[in-house]
């Protein structure tokens, strides 16, 4: 009587290949003793197998991508991944026996523990001998290969080889050592990211996630777990930018003029001193020692003070070259503050030290059940997006450092090749430095990096090399494939041969987050949690037989004033960060003509008497309604550490 394993294969030693064997239920019984080792080195083995005339039981037995087991004695089985199969004589004889060569890549070995349970080890202690029997891996051994004993391991899919075996990933290892998701357009990258983010916040409720979303894809993916920050409600004050970042905005991504940058380097600290106190005393101190304040110190100042200092210097000069630089700089500042596209920097009618409220909202401190911030970048001028990303990544790292690792943040960079391109001459150096700092040092302080890109070949290899868990989806470009190939260990590189032919929602996963490299398929996520779900709904509602009415005037207004829905919209109507937009609709604000309100904002920016508004002692860290609501004891989780945003900010202002 024959004995069968869990997959329905005849036990080792059965050699009947003359007919199709069937189990009592009628299913085909495969013969597991199909080949013998004829060649072996430290990484590969070649197996000789045969198929006899009219045999059908094993026609799909040897297939590329499957794992096989090679018996080496004493209960030890070497595991190999089949990556190539060929006929012995380059022809196929339909009238006689056929002989094949099976090429496998050795990936590890399995032994039985004291209780007889199979255990997988990524190393190999005993290599197969010539003639060793090779067969398809048992179900129990296959489970042992992909078992993940990490306490933070969660299921994200199933194996492509066997859908009954879960694909597990260790969340702690993935985020602490950074990760990358790569794949061409349309293969399910965004859905994969959505799934991973939900698994992360379930396993690590102490983590905050900042998603840099350039295509407005993720606003619909986390309706219950996120807030959305866009150009219409963003308040990122200009004085929070470092000099390099502010100059990048001022010059709109074009080449900088060193003389004008030098003027700003001298004038901005003096403007910050003027904002703090008496004009004469403050300027004199700044001229002597600066009292520790530089152009990079995140302290508020008024544009009116900066302009007045530049104008005073202009009045003391003749018609020399320095005068020309001063006049050019004044024109740049005026154009920048007059541009509605930059209202996220200059939207405040008064200059106030509100950085604590801004950071508390962006980095979800406290989270109030919504630990994810979807930061939409599509409404921010493309030439200054890099500067904004630089500010956010820098602040994420500083908050973690100066909170003693209590504020743990995962920064997810969608379309990462935009911010950290392979060519160091491209992009924005401070952005590259801020992201590289997270990649190299973030693990020490609880800041993690997630990199998502469809073109890994255009991504900075140094930063990509810091990602120790990879999710590689379909990639057709040879350069992109070669970049990923460099990241995987030599014993498993044959897995990447499948990259051009992977199905949608299928991936090769390898690195610290998984026990061993695997080819797997992600689980489906609900329709209402899909990224860009609202866009899909809009596309699905289109009727091709009916012409959709379009008001070109409305479209033109949005081009002129991004984020404005009608002629009555204005910068003063924008609910700033820390305002009521997070959990409820912003309060109604009386309307006035756009040009009048815009002039009001500009006058406040350049007003010499604009006061520094500070919250009253009874109102907590910020005077905005949402901050009061978020700071209430009932809203705070008992597991969340109590901390003051003001104290943290003061620490990284004056280390």
Describe what this molecule looks like in 3D.
With 655 residues, the chain is α/β, with parallel strands linked by helices. Among the domains are: 9-145, Elongation Factor Tu (Ef-tu), domain 3 (Beta Barrel), CATH 2.40.30; 166-189 and 204-212 and 389-522, 3-Layer(aba) Sandwich (Rossmann fold); 238-344, no CATH class. The protein is built from 19 helices and 21 strands. The chain has helices spanning 139-145, 171-176, 189-203, 243-250, 258-276, 279-288, 303-315, 321-338, 343-346, 355-362, 385-402, 429-445, 461-464, 478-487, 533-540, 552-560, 594-606, 625-630, 645-653, and strands at residues 9-10, 21-22, 28-31, 35-40, 44-51, 67-73, 76-87, 98-112, 118-121, 133-136, 153-159, 166-170, 179-182, 207-213, 226-229, 372-376, 408-414, 447-453, 469-472, 506-511, 518-522. It has an eleven-stranded mixed β-sheet. Strands 4-5-8-7-6-10 form a six-stranded antiparallel β-barrel. A three-stranded mixed β-sheet has the order 1-3-2, with no helix packed on it. A hairpin with a 5-residue loop joins strand 8 (98-112) and strand 9 (118-121). Helix 4 (243-250) packs antiparallel against helix 11 (385-402), helix 5 packs across helix 7 and helix 11 (385-402) crosses helix 19. The termini are far apart. Residues 1-19, 278-290, 537-541, 565-602 and 607-643 have low confidence and may be disordered. Residues 154-395 form the Helicase HerA central domain. Residues 588-610 have a biased composition (Polar residues). This is ATPase.
